[in-house]
Amino acid sequence: MGLWFYICFSCSVAIQCLETVFKIRSEDVQLAAPYTLEEVFSQAHLQKDDITPAESPSSAPAAMEKAEQLKDEGNNYMKEQRYEAALDCYSQAVELDPNNAVYFCNRAAAHSQLGRHHDAITDCEKAISIDAKYSKAYGRMGRALAAMSKYKEAIGSFQKALDLDPENESYKSYLKISEQKVRQVPSPTSAGWGFDMASLMNNPAFVSMAAGLMQDPQVQQL
Ligand SMILES: *[C@@H]1O[C@H](CO)[C@@H](O)[C@H](O)[C@H]1NC(C)=O
């Protein structure tokens, strides 16, 4: 009984929908098409390509062209160090064409210049989700992470950038700098001891004492 009601209800809703969409009534028998369903579908399929741009305005050629213009405008603002204006242009470009990784990556650069490293990282992640082989987005994310003193994560980003663009000298030097920073920054445990573990490990007297201790059978028992 319930199922029967459901089917009937669905049918009447479906009929209503069809009537509304096609502005017809089920009484309009003279509209009964002299085509089979298959013919109707193949016809619809042929027309699909023609109507696609009109149906998705965000990927319409005009919108994409406008987005490119906004990107160029943004790039010019970046050169003039007008970062807020550049950011605004890139944001508009992103609105018009949200599938272009370059717009997100460029906006990340503007965020970075404005000190908004967190926003820069979010935009880099977005760019990478669109184009996983976009080395520049990894490089930029690495720099934002480094600016936030997140050197370990930065190393991962720079390595990824270098994987994709192995010749890039900038990535090599950024990677090296982050690796040095990781070594310099006291680890949480050594910071707790109130002395610089890294410089202690560079002290020859300490190192030889430690080496001697390691040889000590009693210490080895510990
Ligand atoms: C290396 O990467 C940086 C940042 O993405 C870019 O500005 C530079 O042009 C690249 N250099 C080479 C040699 O490709």
From TrEMBL:
Cited SUPFAM superfamilies? TPR-like
Start-end of each TPR repeat? 67-100, 135-168
Q: Which GO terms describe its biological process?
A: post-translational protein targeting to endoplasmic reticulum membrane
Please provide the record's keywords in A-Z order: Repeat, Signal, TPR repeat
Carries keyword Magnesium?
Answer: no
Q: Which GO terms describe its cellular component?
A: membrane; TRC complex
Question: Domain of life, per the record?
Answer: Eukaryota
Question: Per its record, what are the GO molecular function terms?
Answer: molecular adaptor activity
Q: Does the keyword Repeat apply?
A: yes
Query: Signal peptide: which range, if any?
Result: 1-17
One Pfam family, please name it. TPR_11
- Supply the name of the protein: Uncharacterized protein
Q: From what organism does this protein derive?
A: Engystomops pustulosus
